[in-house]
Design a protein that fits this description.
alpha+beta; 5-stranded mixed β-sheet; 433 residues; Rossmann fold; binds adenosine-5'-triphosphate; binds magnesium ion
Length: 433
């Protein structure tokens, strides 16, 4: 036998019925995005490597060790499977001069790729849903995006999600803080791990994002960016906070929250939960007013977030509202294969009037199978009704309807009843649609 091929490690198939939960989440997101007037954008999964190197920063986990990069075999161009999609959206916005007539609110959904150690809530192909508002400098957009995410948790029935907030200030404030930070880390160099030492002078802010338990106490006492913010940055931060407060969105200021990419300034935030173990961040974002310029576009302010779809779905399983799995309205039981042409005519009419019908098909070439085996399949399909297309009944323009699920309260399903096939509207009524 040929060797069995399996999926790449850390990359998952999403199969039914699980895929129905994905579609359900995506539908809720689309509806919500429309309410906030965010429009869908779809950019390529493959981008030039330099987009991420320049956009995210060279000394970041993603660029240093997590990207799937390769050379185009024809022209040697350096390409990368997108590890995130803010850079791609910004590239598209600049490339198409989308801000020419003012700001744009955009959202996306799709797969991202990072070469990380696979574990619960951490995969090599994973999915993000993201929202970005570009061309708006005001704190009201930071607040709008946070309220949008908060509304999504509510729509999904999630309770245990906390918002953490910080401000990374502006480049000049960052420079002052950086000097204080380097001095502090130098004084504590005995506690620094190897990665921290390597990054100390290249990107000291990144050290604050370290997950090494041995460094946590030292990091807690590090100089806070918040203490280096000037009046304008503080005013921006206070505007965000007062909109959140007025709308009862609770938050905790986390002075160590710096995010994993270098492109952020001013507001940064994460939504975290205690219910998912160590992969507890379900959504992260912030302002990135200098990114567009950095990748060669015309300078424009921007703010956005991205959520991890796998983690959100996992959290919904833990505590959220459970959706009903999709089932067909009716299962077509077909005693004789000679009736198939006529049965198809009926099924097509029913389907075009909004009734979902799953057709029986025999497991051998000989025929449709016994009534017993057909009803077994009908039961397993989850359909509420079986439509029994007996040849004699069909010849008289009729089909038998048999309830498969007893209505709540009744102890057994009713026997089958005969119905004329004349009106699709009547059928829709009959099948509770
Ligand atoms: P973490 O600190 O958990 O590594 P991150 O800061 O690298 O997350 P972001 O780049 O901010 O994550 O991505 C936004 C969200 O995407 C995260 O909050 C998380 O929910 C999700 N995410 C990130 N990496 C992965 C992954 N490898 N597998 C599954 N989800 C992920
Ligand atoms: Mg990460």
């Amino acid at each position: 036998m040929a060797e069995k091929l399996v999926a790449v490690k850390g990359m998952n198939d999403i199969l039914p019925p699980e895929s129905a939960r994905w579609e359900w989440l995506e539908d809720i997101v689309r509806t919500l995005m429309a309410r906030y007037a965010y429009r869908n954008i779809r950019t390529p999964i493959v981008e030039p490597t330099s987009l991420f190197v320049r956009g995210l920063g060279e000394v970041t986990d993603i660029v240093e060790k997590e990207m799937y990069s390769f050379e185009d075999r024809l022209n040697g161009e350096a390409l990368t499977l997108r590890p995130e999609n803010t850079a791609g959206v910004v590239r598209a916005v600049a490339e198409h001069a989308m801000l020419y007539e003012g700001g744009k609110r955009l959202y996306y959904m799709g797969p991202m790729f990072r070469h990380e150690r696979p574990q619960r809530g951490r995969y090599r192909q994973f999915h993000q849903i993201g929202a970005e508002a570009l061309g708006f400098p005001g704190a009201e957009l930071d607040a709008e995006l946070i309220l949008l995410a908060d509304a999504l948790w509510k729509a999904l029935g999630l309770k245990d999600v906390q918002l953490e907030l910080n401000s990374l200030g502006q480049p000049e404030e960052r420079r002052l803080h950086r000097a204080a930070l380097v001095a502090y880390f130098e004084a504590n160099s005995d506690v620094l791990d190897e990665e921290a030492r390597r990054r100390l002078y290249k990107n000291p802010l990144r050290l604050l994002d370290s997950k090494n338990p041995a460094m946590q106490t030292m990091l807690e006492a590090a100089p806070r960016l918040m203490d280096f913010l000037g009046d304008a940055s503080l005013a921006h931060f206070n505007s965000v906070k007062s909109i959140l407060e007025a709308n009862n969105v609770a938050f905790r200021i986390n002075p160590r929250l710096v995010r994993g990419m270098d492109y952020y300034n001013l507001t940064v935030f994460e939504f975290v939960t205690q219910s998912l173990g160590s992969q507890g961040t379900i959504c992260g974002g912030g302002r990135y007013d200098y990114l567009i310029e950095q990748i060669g576009g015309k300078a424009a302010p921007a703010v956005g977030w991205a959520l991890g779809v796998e983690r959100v779905l996992e959290l919904i399983k833990e505590q959220g509202r459970e959706m009903a799995l999709p089932v067909p309205d009716a299962y077509a039981v077909i005693p004789e294969s000679s009736s198939l042409p006529a049965v198809f005519q009926v099924m097509q009419v029913l389907r075009s009037s909004g009734i979902s019908v799953q057709m029986h098909s025999g497991s051998t070439l000989e025929g449709m199978g016994s009534m017993k085996s057909q009803f077994k399949k009908a039961d397993a399909s989850g359909a509420r009704f079986a439509l029994v297309f007996g040849a004699d009944e069909l010849a008289q323009g009729c089909v038998a309807l048999k309830p498969l699920r007893a209505p709540a309260g009744a102890d057994k399903a009713d026997a089958q009843t005969l119905h004329r096939l004349d009106s699709a509207a009547e059928w829709a009524q009959l099948l509770h649609r």
